[in-house]
Amino acid sequence: MKKRILCTIMSVSMVASLLAGCGSGNGSGNGAQNNSSDTPSTEAGTSADAGTSTDAGTDEGTSSDDPYAAYAGTTISVAAIETAYGSEMWQEVADAFTAETGIAVDLTTDKNLEDVIGPSMQGGEYPDVIHLATGREAGLTEQFIKDNMIADITDVLSMTVPGETAAVSDKIAGGFTETSLTNPYGDGKTYLAPMFYSPCGLFYNAGLLEEKGWEVPTTWDEMWELGDKAKEEDIYLFTYPTTGYFDAFLYALMYSVGGPEFFDKATHYEEGIWETPEAQTCFDIIAKLASYTNPTTPAQANDQDFTQNQQLVLDNKAIFMPNGTWIVGEMAEAPRADGFKWGMTALPAVEKGGDSYSYTWFEQAWIPSGAENQDAAKLFVAFLYSDAACEIFAKSGAIQPVLGIADKLEGDNVMFYSIYDNGAKAAMGNFAAFDAIPGIEVRTVFLDPVNSLVSGNMTEDEWIASVISASDQMRENLK
Asked: Burial level of 60, CB count in 10 A (0-12/13-18/19+)?
């Protein structure tokens, strides 16, 4: 899941050239400076709502009751990165959209999408919709965000999904449009649409809990109670593959203790944030969890031996481990205890009745602010959440973040992707990038010390002090 397709050196130079030629001219590059005046107005005579008909400019032979009459003869260009899911699904979705709305789609897919769409964008010709996630080496999406060149699509959330009666906001799972990955400017508006996702959480042997009559903890107090019960039977509460897997764990934990506001402040290294009660709760939970962790874990928490830690769960030597849905395939051939069956749960809530969170990796789709057919492009984005589109994507293994998606899946995926249907909220986002600081990385500061907490080579207070010191330097070197 975490692997990204790397672009060629030519791609990087092309994107750099492109951005130099079409940048917004905002010297600070600060997305927070974005405002509505940066986004071109929508086309005259078109409807911004798929469920609203228009009586303006209909062509001969079209019905005045046709909600898409104003788009007669329109063709939109859609550019989508081709990944392991393949490109055929995009053509199927484009065809289904055209069948529903009459709007033609000129589709471009490529594994090195930046190379393909770069030259035309240098000349000021932009695709109407781009599916290209953040986190790629070329950084094209991030650069468009930085230069305020992505259109506001907040109104898409209130649009009716083409061919259906539900609004887009009624279909997207909770939390996906409340993150810095979709709302990058912190202005309460949505600019990027959440796409294919994979939830992370705590994985365990559901068969063991059933055999012992133990319930899945819903709060951390219940987690510690289970840890004490398990210890009496020589079973540890916790393990982890490597400390790198604590990224998704920590993100979800930060959301659960302080919500999106605390998460955003913490991941942008706000001064004093690591000395707040919310931060202390995070440190306390991880430190206490270290005392319930199988002591063999740190020695095996490396890229060569991490599967041995995962094996601890399959052998009933540890109950929970943080992981992602790929774990099933990764350990498919591994031996396991009798009656083993995969279970997955979100992180427990801090207190009874509180929110529980599951971190998710997800991709994004967006509309360039210079796109020619923005209204029609918004219809296409809305259609991406239709039952028809979701079923097409799911056939290729690309799962959309919509409620009830588990009903369309099979096997273990039913359990994994129903996690947000069962009350958990989605945690999303990551630590903000900063200029290189010798000896300081996000992983070495926030994640790797867990090994030392488990082994007893570092105290919680020592860890907190190091986080505060490093965070101050990160803040001073924010990109």
From this structure: exposed
Residue 294 identity: N
What is the C-alpha to C-alpha distance for residues 273 and 267, in angstroms, rounded to an integer? 10
Question: Given this model, what pLDDT does residue 29 score?
Answer: 30
pLDDT tens digits for 115-156?
999 999 989 999 999 999 987 767 899 889 988 999 999 999
Q: For residues 29 and 425, what is the distance between their CA atoms, to the nearest angstrom?
A: 31
Q: Which domains does the chain have, with CATH numbers?
A: 9-190+367-400 (3.40.190.10), 199-360+430-476 (3.40.190.10)
Contact 252, 350 (CB under 8 A): no
pLDDT, residue 64, reads: 57
Most distant CA atoms of the chain, gap in Å: 79
CA dist 282 and 15 (Å) reads: 39
Q: Which two tokens stand for residue 238?
A: 């916790």
Angle between helices 88-101 and 374-383 (to 10 degrees): 110
Buried b (16+ CB within 10 A) or exposed e, 283-319: bebbbebbebbbebbbebbeeeebebbbbbbbbbbbb
User: Which single residue is written with the structure tokens 């799962």?
Assistant: 399
The span from the CA of 218 to the CA of 356, in Å, is: 8
Element (H, E) at 369: none
pTM of the model: 0.68
List Cβ neighbours of 228 (8 Å cut-off, separation of 6 or more). none
What gap in Å lies between CA 212 and CA 235, rounded to an integer? 12
Residue matched to tokens 């750099």? 16
Rounded to whole angstroms, how far apart are CA atoms 121 and 21? 9
For the chain, the average pLDDT equals: 86
Query: Tokens 């999408």 identify what position?
Result: 113
- Residue 44: Cβ within 10 Å count: 9
